[in-house]
Amino acid sequence: MEERKGIENEKINKYACASAIVASMISIIFGYETGVMSGALIFIKEDLKITELQVEVLGGIINFCALIGALSAGRTSDYIGRRYTICLASAIFFSGSLLMGFAPNFALLLTGRCVAGIGVGFALVIAPVYSVEISAASTRGILASLPEIGISLGILFGYISSYFFGKLPLHTGWRVMFAIGAVPSLGLAFGILGMPESPRWLVMQGRLKDAKTVLSKVSNTEAEAESRLQDIRLAAGVDPDCNDDHVITPNQNTSGQGVWKELLLRPTPQVRWMLLAALGIHFFEHATGIEAVILYSPRIFKKAGIESKNKLLLATIGVGITKTVFISVSSFLIDKTGRRKLLLASVGGMIVSLLGLGFALTIVQHSPDQRVVWALWLSIATCYLYVMFFSIGLAPVTWVYSSEILPLKLRAQGASIGVAVNRVTNATVSMTFLSLIKAITIGGAFFMFGGISVLAWIFFFFFLPETKGKSLEEMEQVFTRNKKSRTVDMESQIKNEDL
């Protein structure tokens, strides 16, 4: 590890950064779809005269449809590559946005939302995986968190779009909001032409020369590029004596065959722990209630006492700004403080904020005229605090951590399973929140999310080891419980490198 630190330059490589930024554009599109729906629901309900149940279905169906994309993305990216999978996701988003923008009725609007959902599934799997695989260990945190920044920017743009286009005639405004979402897809189509393919995918395909060329561009020195290539070759099972300038027949074990068996049926203890950590962090990201705040923030603020549509949308824009600012801050902290410390501090703050939000909303709801000024301001403040703490830790760490810990040949399809859990949890929260607040009150709902956050903190404390500064090929050592065997594995790897 000390040798690698000497080889790796901690300065961010400009080409790798530019590639990760382009990949993150697909996340901006997804974020926009989420954010714009929050405001658009106010106008859709009035224009199409839909019921509360239809509002819940429209808000959450994108996540169930994302399962199709998520479960397909891993195998697809293993076959056609990470770069062209991003292109495919962009095309799907483009189609979904146009369908929603020109929808004359609820049925076609729901269809467009489903199509966009498939694109969501692809985007959530491939953007973090690509960013992780293009990055060096010393800068992986900041580059791999760019997709999450993209989602936050997209959500903010969606909120702003709702505010400004909401001033258009009722029949036109919400349709323009959705149609605008097709524009970034065109930008991505041009940007993708300048992106390199993932060097790890190229090695899995036996294209060692191409992988070497890419690594020389995304590394700061030739020594760093050579070190990274040797690590990837070792992880992919490539013969150490094989010439890097040749195209070789890929190892069958790295071409997607038997991956599900190694992940689910006969995992090693390390892989089982990795998968548990990845699925757990994806589950708790949304089980702690963020989607309820992002999608239904206008309703939350209305419950707190804000009545005007303009004020509701402005307060919602504040949520988007808070999320974007603090995710951007976390990107610069994640490689310095580490994933684990940031995660535990984040969830601890979320617990306090959720309990405060639940308390304030309960006071407002049980007051005779629902005009308790201090409780109104406490509701808004704790809502923003919750988004702040979520954004500075749990939001970016979820995608960085789950994308970096799985072995190379299991990474894409393992990420697919994680995203599937993420989307099911997200959909469950978004499609049941309105019913939940009717059953246990809005304050009770946030008390419940606070309780789940306590369980999340306990899980993260006991099951998520630190991965800061570790190369992707070292993760199995990190997830080895026996320290003695971990040391033996490291000594063995050093000997193989010397040979």
TrEMBL record:
Pfam families: Sugar_tr. Residues 19-468 form the Major facilitator superfamily (MFS) profile domain. Its main location: membrane. It is found in: Membrane. Keywords: Membrane, Sugar transport, Symport, Transmembrane, Transmembrane helix, Transport. The keyword Transmembrane helix applies. It is a multi-pass membrane protein. GO terms for molecular function: symporter activity. It comes from the Eukaryota. NCBIfam families: SP. Belongs to the major facilitator superfamily. Phosphate:H(+) symporter (TC 2.A.1.9) family. Belongs to the major facilitator superfamily. Sugar transporter (TC 2.A.1.1) family. This is Major facilitator superfamily (MFS) profile domain-containing protein. It comes from Centaurea solstitialis.
